Amino acid sequence: MEATYLPAPHHILRLAVSSLNDVFSTLKTYTGPESAKARSNAEFEIYTQTGFVPRSPLRRLPVSFDFWERALERAHKDISLGEDDTDAAVSKRVSSEKWRENIRKGPLLSIQSLVGDMRKLQRAHMVLAWLVQFYVHSIPPSSSKSAIVVPRTLAIPLVTVSKILGIAPILTYADTVLWNVAPKDPDYPISAENMTFQHLFSGTDDEEAFYTTSAAVELRGAEILQIIEEYHRLPNLTEVTTVAKIANDLRRVATIIAEISDIVQSVRAQCDPHVFYWAIRPWYKGADADGPDSPGWVYEGVENTKSLDLSGPSAGQTPVMHGLDIWLDIDHKLKQRRAPAPSEDNKRADHGFMERMRRYMPGTHQEYLRYVESSPRPIRDLARQVPALREPYNTAVAALKKMRDAHIRIACLYVVTMSKSTPASRKGCPMIAMMERMKKEESSSTKAPVRGTGGNELSTLLKAGRDATQRAMIN
Ligand code: HEM
């Protein structure tokens, strides 16, 4: 048999290097900024192991704030959801009203002593924001068209703390997940296996599982934040070894996104969609959840209360996904000319959603996103210029698109499908169940869109985000 002569290994290496060098000789000089300008994640309160989750949350405010802390403790016992008409919930109507009266008549505490201590300010925001939701949503629905008044004892300190933290004065993703998570065993750091949540509205395992899923995404996403940080520190983007590192990191990011996608889907095992929709989600509603014509909320004693950002919390406020989107240059606002052209539904979607969600993040995290955005070395442009990076870049984008596909299925199951179901309390009575169904069918025939907690048209919004991701692919 004729012998086949293969080039020696050092020949292969030389060939590879020379073809890469060809690429670089045609490549415009693309070194980006000096690494000295790169900022460290720590500056933005980002931790190596936990990302945007603080390593050690504060469990309680100083004693002078016991009025708030005690009210929160009592809320878990005394309060039920106003729109829940089960016997158990109705039996708490009197204690709920007493609790609200206590809030209204309580002291107006000054937050001055908390200024300068980030953990205390975060805890204050969290406690006050939870109290506001407990207050508003424990009120039974009424036919009155007047706005809900959030008492000054909560409204004034919450707005003051929020201004200092640079975050919206309402319950946010930071309050339900980032600052709510604590280590189950305090002797060990927070990890996917060692976490618990300090506050729950419904007290159900389903609610805890919902937060656990989001926090697990945050922890897994921490590695992406490190990769972005390293990218900004690379001294020279045109070196062969640097390109190899970027390619590797993009592939690594694709793997992490795939794992995040699995985590998001794992919510189904422990959080029942029906419990989510009827017992958990109603607590999240913000002032605009019932549409633009609803009377909304008034923050007593606060100037320009109408101009406050008062949408409910959403995982759309997670800075991890925003950071990733910005780094990969996903064009949610449809500002770039990319193929395929946006569909009519895409054009109709709320393009400002992601940008708006940023106002519900802590100021330091918003600053991080602005920093990534202002990067003078956008990775998509680099991948367009360096052929060796195209496939790894596209792999990362494809993983993100796949994640968004999976997330749409979850959101549809938990929100769209459940919006057509009947609450458990009325399930027992076939007559009421039938009336409920007819009401739902009637409202769906008038084509009222299902809205997210942020008051936006859900399926159009999520699909537009998925399609914007797809459009980032480099052909
Ligand atoms: C039961 C599980 C989940 C449900 C029912 C759900 C539902 C939703 C809904 C309704 C929206 C539309 C925005 C709005 O709130 O108005 C949304 C957006 C979003 N969610 Fe989720 N979500 C779930 C889990 C997660 C998890 C675990 C993450 C990751 C941390 C996540 C990340 C996002 C992001 C980043 C958006 C903004 C839109 C986008 O990036 O595509 N979601 N979600």
How would you describe this structure to a colleague?
Belongs to the indoleamine 2,3-dioxygenase family. The protein is mostly helical. It has a domain of 311 residues: Up-down Bundle (Methane Monooxygenase Hydroxylase, Chain G, domain 1), CATH 1.20.58.480. It has 20 helices and four strands. The chain has a two-stranded parallel ribbon with strand order 1-4. Strands 2-3 form a two-stranded antiparallel ribbon. Helix 8 packs parallel to helix 12 and helix 9 runs parallel beside helix 17. The N terminus is likely disordered. The site of protoporphyrin IX containing FE has 27 residues, from helix 8, helix 17 and helix 20.
Amount of helix: 40-55%
First CA to last CA: what distance? 44 Å
Mean pLDDT: 89
Q: Write down the CATH topology of the domain at 33-56 and 170-296 and 311-470.
A: Methane Monooxygenase Hydroxylase, Chain G, domain 1
SS content category: mainly alpha
Which H/E pattern describes the elements?
HHHHHEHHEEHHHHEHHHHHHHHH
Beta-strand proportion: under 5%
**CATH-scheme architecture of the domain at 33-56 and 170-296 and 311-470:** Up-down Bundle
Distinct small-molecule ligands in the complex: protoporphyrin IX containing FE
What count of helical segments does DSSP give?
20
**What's the CATH class of the domain at 33-56 and 170-296 and 311-470, please?**
Mainly Alpha
